[in-house]
Amino acid sequence: MSAALGRLHEPLNRLLGTRTANALVKLGIVTVDDLLRHYPRRYADPGQLTDIGSLQLGEHVSVLARVEKATMRPYANRGGARLEAVVTDGRHPLVLTFFAKHAGALRYHEQRLRPDASGVFSGVVGEFQGKRQLTHPDYLMVGAEVDDDEAALYEASLPIPIYPATASMPTWKLQRCVRTVLDTLAEDDVPDPAPSEVRARAGLPTRFEALRLVHKPESAADHGRGRHRLRFEEAFVLQAALAQRRARAAEEDATARPSRSGGLLERFDAALPFTLTEGQVSVGAELAHDLARPRPMQRLLQGEVGSGKTVVALRAMLQVIDAGGQAALLAPTEVLAAQHARTLRTLLGPLAEGGLLGGAADGTRVALLTGSLGAAARKAALLQAASGEAGIVVGTHALLGEHVQFADLGLVVVDEQHRFGVEQRDALRAKGRVAPHLLVMTATPIPRTVAMTVFGDLEVSTLTQVPAGRSGIQTVVVPAANPRWMERAWQRVREEVDAGHRAYVVCPRIHPDDDIAGPPESELDDADLVPAGGEGADRAPLRAVLEVVEMLRATPALAGLQVDVLHGQMAPVDKDAAMARFASGASQVLVSTTVIEVGVDVPEATVMVVFDSDRFGLSQLHQLRGRVGRGSAPGLCLLVSTAEPGTPAAARVEALAETTDGFRLAQLDLELRAEGDVLGAAQSGRTSGLRLLRVVKDAELIEEARRESAGVVAVDPGLLEHPALAAAIAAQLDPDQEEFLERA
Ligand code: ADP
Ligand code: MG
To answer: Does a structural domain hold residue 192?
Structure first.
């Protein structure tokens, strides 16, 4: 890798001097390559001065402005001198102030700050006599680097790159460093991960050329072209890595698990109390086909909330059991694992009572293995897994423990995959003698390009339909400040419970005095909150589970009802107990955090009240809402909101009230969010390979990169003919990256 990078791998101290190199380290820049990847954040157009009126006090800024005058002011009594320059954007003045012991020390600045010259001035915005001021700003005069007037004029017309900077390394210093380094390089020093035939087809410059275009543009078209090429490269390297993963998986051996007549699957289908939806049938056929091949299935099943993924997964598990194998089902929390085990046992009925009195003679068993099991129960579950007596083993991360042995693990189903990293996935896959088949399920609908970027090594199946006979969910926004509406909300809860149904009440926090829902025991308590930024800083604090439960127990409309709590800080047994009470109807109102967001299935729950709904992310609200209206009775979702009409927060909540189409909401959510949030935390910061690529905006580019990289990898799977691409992949796939490839 270092050989391929050659000169790019050099540390910067030799080229720039130790002092400068040390200052750059603070920005995470160590090598030539790091510096060249420190792309400008934006470009200032010399024809367009910065709006000085909009500068905020205390902000570190780089301002493009024109000098109006510079005045030397010696101090008469105490010696020393002050140089005061006024620069302008044509409307507002900005004062630049320099102090020195002697006026002579300020002459240098006085000479450079000539009236009518333009420059970029960097510093922290202060105030002096009612005017915006920079004290001892760092600055670079436009066109000052060249001696003859013509060259100066030309230089003054160029776009000025503005770099992410620090006080000790202002943008113009960075610009100078990048130029110095770039000028020492030639085409051959900069290996290009994009092969020339790919570049030719896509009409892209070389990497070297692109670096020059973004760091030393002569026009806006230049930096646009350079950025486009670098963006393509990010997509291309990522997609090539994914193509390699797919190619490697296609080489791997797996045990074929073809379906068998007269087995558990046939009997399960025959006893199923409902008809499978068309989608469930066709996705089922895809899975059956994959499982019958001697290559590991690698499939992502994404489905609308309530579309019935569990049954689809169970049918795949039964096919594997029929073929002599076992299946493992991984859930993100103990609550969900326990629920899955219950659901599977219920769905299977006698088929899950193999070897028990009254059970089907050739039935199987569902074992639950979680961290909170008692020693005896744990031993029994471990034994069932190891002996093969349990055809299905359900668990959380505990399933990945080294002591867990399977007789013949044929299929791994990961529910709500975005909570699992790649290590866990690989650890589990390593449990089989050969790679087990893999089915990843996600209930968060993912727009196509995100799926391609994040799950690019998986085939995708999609369930868009929800089973017939659902009466749908009505969603209503309830203004928190309106007591009559709130009263009516609790009456509605009462009516639902009186009709034999149950209610969820969701709050963003556990304790009234916590800042957030934490310290969360389970990350699922972590409400996916949208910052209140600018939407009213003086709002009431967020509602908390432990406060709301007390309030509801004292609410006349709910008198006589059992109101329970559920959150991630409760002991696992207490969580299970609370869930079981609610599922059985012993309690009818469950006040909880977002811990119920993912996959909790209580068909009798028909109403949900979400406090501070205007602060939740759209996708999360959609998930939450999916917890009600799962039976035949219609669902009702009451979104309690404190958002001011007309704000983005209000728009978010209203969007949810208008549509139940998860794919549309997911797309909308993406558009409303910053990129870092889309791909998860592993994406942010300098370890991220994605600096310029925007998964939502760059959809076409990603498609193109995917096609091109697939072509390259198909011909040269080991990338032996493409060392620069191989090196780029290796550099991107440090451990952090490896994880991000597999995360949503
Ligand atoms: P999700 O896709 O959100 O995980 P589930 O698998 O939990 O959905 O299914 C939601 C509910 O719908 C469950 O109670 C399940 O038994 C039921 N269900 C699944 N498929 C069908 C069907 N074809 N017809 C009727 N009900 C179904
Ligand atoms: Mg589910």
So the answer is: no
